[in-house]
Amino acid sequence: MSMRSWSEYGFGFPLYNGDNYEQVVRFIIRNGGRDYTDDEVEDLMGLCKRRDEALLQDFFDNPVSFEVASIINDLEGTTFVRGYSPCGDTDQEEYIGIEPCYSWEMRGNDMKIKTVEDASVLLTKYASQLGVSDKPDYFEALYFG
Question: What are all long-range contacts of 92-95, with beta carbons under 8 Å and residues at least 24 apart?
Answer without folding.
Answer: 92/141, 92/142, 93/14, 93/15, 93/16, 94/14, 94/15, 94/16, 94/53, 94/63, 94/64, 94/65, 95/10, 95/12, 95/13, 95/14, 95/15, 95/65, 95/139, 95/141
